[in-house]
Amino acid sequence: MPTNPTDAETSLDPPQAPTGKGLQGGSVGLLAAVALGLSSVAPAYSIAVTLGFVTMVVGNLAPAALLLGFVPILLTAFAFRELNREMPDCGTTFVWTTRAFGPRAGWLSGGWVVQIATLIAMTALARVGAGYLLTLLGLDSLATDDVAVIVTAVLLVAAVTTIAYRGLQLAASVQYVLLGLQLVALFGFGAAAFARDGASAPSLSWLNPFAFGGFGPFAEAVLLCLFIYWGWDALITVNEETRDSDRIPGQAAVISTLVLLGTYLFTGFAAISFAGIGTDGLGLGNPDNAGDVLATLGPPVLGAGLSKVVELAICVSAISALLTCVIGSSRATLSMGAHGALPRAFTRIHPTYRTPAFGTVFFGATAAVLLTALTLVSGNFLGDAILSIGLLIAFYYGVTGLACVWHFRHRLNDSPRDLFLRGILPALGAAIMLAAFARSAHDMLAPDYGATSFHGIGGVFLLGVGSIAVGAVAMVLVRTRFRRFFRDGRTAVTRLTVTED
Questions:
Q1: Which residues lie across from 28 on neighbouring strands?
Q2: Which among 7, 265, 330, 445 could bridge 359 via Cys, Cβ 3.0 to 4.6 Å?
Q3: Using an 8 Å Cβ cutoff, are 336 and 153 in contact?
Q4: SS3 454
């Protein structure tokens, strides 16, 4: 991609040259990459809506579940880091899985599954952000009105799409503020909870990984915890815009996951110390509190005034994650388009902002339409759709771990480092992820799993496994249009099929 020599000569600090796909290379540093990774997870929102359910399953072993759920995430992060060093492409799992297992696996697991999971997540994040925003504005009656929530959510999607459209530097600047508020709120809440009269002293026994009452509760709790860590890999999709792209994105992935672990453990210990695990009152085992433990515990811990800060943190947490979803998805489909696996329209780059113009608008618009459709069909349907995300996460993370091992299989004996970081650890992570996928799929078959069922089969299973099956059918159909990509096998992503005009 040629650059303008006149601009380079007349500017003391010229912009970085566009990459082969037209993105603005070198525009993101380590701190910005970490911020994008953390924000995409929505830490305040994720711990608020997950901690109660985990506690209901395993009681005061919730911190142990948080720790164990982190293990496959960390192992997967190593796989992402090693694959990114070898193949720094914004298509990430799409490119890596294609190189390892061929175009069919790459298109389905690394492309379709990732994007479907992200779109479903965007609908949930937009709804949560809209509901909290209306409440914070004192519009409680509108926060329970579906039409008002849909309109507000669509406006939020439009706002984050505009920010993503205008470039990563603006997006990163916004994320610093939003992420900072979340971390301050979570650590402030935790410190206040520990200091409250009546709070019990935390115990190391809460971290005992051998105290679970059987494999079933263990698997269910760990799968729930996978959701609260999911999303950090969005930072890898900006690798072509990151300085030192073969090193910094991998470092940022590991750093962001470690920061998440520390934040979640601190918040989990604090919440259990203050409220306990009882099934009534403020107890975390109370089903009435499970949907949002921070909103329940905020007023008694912080008081009515400061608890609003926690609510604001959850609101901006959802909105910031929504922003990174748009950023990550548009770059993943840019790569798929550039390698000839999607229509050429996805390769369109804005001439000024150097962002995937079509892909950004496409994902914003698709999320708005899907949000509206799911909400109008049934609120329960949307809830089951969110639960199905866990299946999709475990599936594509597991396949990515296997792709790492297979891609580097001939080099695992080169050094102990290669054996562990490119072989043993990614393989172990993949095994845990795929075991969680199989166990969860089995459990979700039950008609009483979730809120809906169809002909005796759980609606969550049909949405999760069904979306993968729909992707397989869609792949058969698109093969007729993108013959070159599917014909060339593993070499299909070693060069760009489509480049910017």
A1: 242
A2: 330
A3: no
A4: strand
